[in-house]
Each structure stands twice: as structure tokens, then as C-alpha cells.
Amino acid sequence: MWDPSTIAFETKDLTLFQSLDGPERRRCCLVVYSGPDLGRQILLDEGVCTLGRSANSQLQLGGPGISRLHAEICVAVSSATLRDLGSVNGSFVGDLRLTDQPQVLKDGDLVRLGSVALKFYAHQSLDAALHDRVLRLATLDAGTGLFNRRYLMDALKRECRTAGQTGRPLCLVMLDLDRFKQVNDSHGHAAGDLVLRECAAIASLVVDQAGVLGRIGGEEFLVLLPGTGLEAARDLAERLRAAVAGHSFDLPAGDAPGAPGESGKPGRGGVPHRQTVSLGVAAWAPGMTDASQLMAEADRGLYHSKRTGRNRVSG
Q1: How far from 248 is each of 27, 194, 195, 202, 275, CA to CA, in Å?
Q2: Which listed residue (219, 220, 262, 297) is catalytic?
Q3: pLDDT category, 132, cuts 50, 70, 90?
């Protein structure tokens, strides 16, 4: 029987099941409609939340025209209001420029802070949930389930701005699978995909809540560690290296030329495999001005690990 409290929306590439009953239905949110965070859904808890480009803002927004403390949104049980905090370029709800008096937000209101456009939803409607699902599809790597390169680069830029403004520690760990091409050549692409997925799962367990983990392309991964010093980052990188090196992979035996079984299907039994990784570690340092410099430093460490024998941490 059809349950009216649940909406199901399916296509070849998208399946969404969203309950519209219970307390989550009443939780309001903002969806970003412009800039690098396009599609990002921001859930709002009861209370006051400040918005601006300062690291001291509870919700940090980047983009031209955003003041350090630009506006605040106050969420109560049955209403939400927006108040401008004396910003240079103003806060708008629709075409109305706010004064210092709060403006009650209605479901579907378009909010503009500087160059950033956001849409307010009074509850987690299907429309808001679809934005969240589409964002997930746009920011997650299909092969591993980790964050993809676009998401990582956006997050890295934001964290570099914060590090530059506040001096907060920031480290980066770059990880590359050693001799990964040989896995594909010797055992087939199904085996290579399995190694990537299992390495991603191992890394996720090690990193946990310490940072942001993602795949930046091919067999290369990145760990963003806000608030982490260099020694702690090196320790985490070493734990990553040891965890992968200590794992026994069981590869499918039927995808490579000459392997038993039909092409593209596993043969009987698996092929044991050991995988190692090389890592480079870098820390945000005085004099750095953007994310590319931090990335280059981590890449130099990774290259040094490869050149001096692999299965090691440098930087």
C-alpha cells in the first residue's frame, strides 16, 4: 500500500527515499544557489547562526561582497528570521534590502548576501532533499564513495583561507598506490577497482573524524587535516601506510588476459595480493598564499617517497 508519508523518486541514475514525517520535517535549511558550493544544503538548528567570510562566523561563506560578519539567522520553533549585521553590500530577501531589523523568512525565499545566493526552506521538503542528493552525486567519487577532486579542492581553498587569516594549523597528506598499473595489467580492471575500494575503506577507518578524505584521480588520494600539526599529520600518514601494507587483498581471478574464468567474471578462488602506498605530508607555512603551494609541497613529499623506495612517508 502506498504510504503518503514517504516520497520515492527514481531514475536510472537516482533513487531517493525521503520521509516527510517526524521532527526532521520541521528542520529548516538553506541551499546554496551560486558559487563553488552550488547545491550545498545547510541544515539549521534552533538558535542564532552568524554568516560571513570570517573564520569566526558559525557559517563561513566565500565570494565577492561578503563581509566578515555579514548577517545572522535566528531559528525558533515556528519561525526563522534574517538580520543584516551592517554589511557593506547588504543582505536581501527577494528584492528587499534589509535594515538592522530582522526579516521573517518564508519557505522558498531567495536570500542574497553579497554575491552569494541561497534559498530558504522552512522544512526538509522533497525539493531540499533533491538538492542534497544531487549535491552528493556531484561531490562523491563513484568508484570509492569518497569525496571527489572538486569537493576536495573547494574544501582545501576554504581551509587555506582560514589558515591564512587565523594561523590555525593545516596539514595535507597525499597518498598514491604503488605500482598500481601492474595490478590492472596482471589481474584486470575488476581487480584494480577492488584494490581502490578496499584502500579507500581502510583509509576511511584510519582518518575517521580527523580530516577530510577523498580521491583526487586515478590511484591518488588526499587527506585534508584542519587544526592538525605536522607531527600529528605524519603520525596519521604512517598509520595509513601500515594499515594498507598489513592488509591482504583477495583479487578476482578472471578479468586479466590468460586468467581462469570467463572475461570480466571472477574465476574459481581468488588471487592473494599485497599493496603498498607512498605518502607525502605538508603543513601550511608562513609565506604561503594559496592552496596550490600546499599541494605542491605535499606532492614533493610524495615524489620523494616514490623515488627513495616506495611504501614510506616523506615530508
Answers
A1: 44, 12, 10, 11, 8
A2: 219
A3: low
Q: Residue 111: which of 185, 61, 58 has the closest Cα?
A: 61
Q: Give the pLDDT band (50/70/90) at residue 133.
A: low
Q: Is 231 a catalytic residue?
A: no
Report how far residue 225's alpha carbon sits from residue 155's, in angstroms, rounded to the nearest whole number: 11
Return phi, psi of residue 223, to 5°.
-120, 120
Look at residue 77 in the predicted model and tell me its pLDDT.
83
Say if CB 311 and CB 278 are below 8 A apart. yes
Q: Which residues contact 210 (CB under 8 A, 6 or more apart)?
A: 225, 228, 236
Encode pLDDT of 227-268 as tens digits: 999 999 999 999 999 999 999 999 987 654 444 433 344 444
C-alpha closest to that of 111 among 30, 28, 26: 30
Q: What is the 3-state secondary structure (H, E, C) of 165-194?
A: HHCCCEEEEEEEECCHHHHHHHHCHHHHHH
Residue 33 grid cell: 544557489
